[in-house]
């Protein structure tokens, strides 16, 4: 007896439901990827670096060296002036 399930029976309907979920899940994932890519959400073309000095900022490194006592105040001021004069 077929009970109205067609030639594949219940497992055909289960397989069709799984394929339908995978299809619509893929469509939704594609939409999310396209929207985030257009807004630059994943570091794509719209990536902006964080505000403030970078960890490799020369003045910051110079200040850290002065704070650690590696250079004295005269050398700190001379190097800071030289950094600020550069083009």
From TrEMBL:
Domain SHOCT: 57-83
Keywords: Membrane, Transmembrane, Transmembrane helix
Residue ranges of the TM segments: 12-35
Superkingdom of source: Bacteria
Name of the featured protein: SHOCT domain-containing protein
Organism: Sinomonas terricola
């Amino acid at each position: 007896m077929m009970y109205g399930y067609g030639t594949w029976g219940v497992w055909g309907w289960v397989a069709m439901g799984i394929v339908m979920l995978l299809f619509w899940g893929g469509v939704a994932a594609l939409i999310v990827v396209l929207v985030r890519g257009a807004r630059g959400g994943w570091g794509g073309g719209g990536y902006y670096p964080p505000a403030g000095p970078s960890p490799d900022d020369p003045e910051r490194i110079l200040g850290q060296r002065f704070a650690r006592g590696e250079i004295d105040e005269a050398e700190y001021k001379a190097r800071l002036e030289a950094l600020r004069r550069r083009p």
